[in-house]
Amino acid sequence: MRRITFLTDFGTKDGYVAQMKGVASSISDARLLDITHEVSPHNIREGAFILWATAPFFPLGTIHVAVVDPGVGTERKGLIVTTKKQILVGPDNGILLPTARLLGDFVVYEITNPKYMIHPLSRTFHGRDIFAPVAAYIARGVPFGEIGTPTKHFVDLQFDLGEHHGDRVVGEVIYVDRFGNLITNIPCDILPGEVEQKKITVVAGDRRWEQIPFVSSYGYAKPGDLLFTIGSNRFLELSVNQGNAQQILGINVDAELQLFFS
Amino acid sequence: MRRITFLTDFGTKDGYVAQMKGVASSISDARLLDITHEVSPHNIREGAFILWATAPFFPLGTIHVAVVDPGVGTERKGLIVTTKKQILVGPDNGILLPTARLLGDFVVYEITNPKYMIHPLSRTFHGRDIFAPVAAYIARGVPFGEIGTPTKHFVDLQFDLGEHHGDRVVGEVIYVDRFGNLITNIPCDILPGEVEQKKITVVAGDRRWEQIPFVSSYGYAKPGDLLFTIGSNRFLELSVNQGNAQQILGINVDAELQLFFS
Amino acid sequence: MRRITFLTDFGTKDGYVAQMKGVASSISDARLLDITHEVSPHNIREGAFILWATAPFFPLGTIHVAVVDPGVGTERKGLIVTTKKQILVGPDNGILLPTARLLGDFVVYEITNPKYMIHPLSRTFHGRDIFAPVAAYIARGVPFGEIGTPTKHFVDLQFDLGEHHGDRVVGEVIYVDRFGNLITNIPCDILPGEVEQKKITVVAGDRRWEQIPFVSSYGYAKPGDLLFTIGSNRFLELSVNQGNAQQILGINVDAELQLFFS
Question: How many Å apart are CA B142 and CA C159, to the nearest integer?
Answer without folding.
Answer: 40
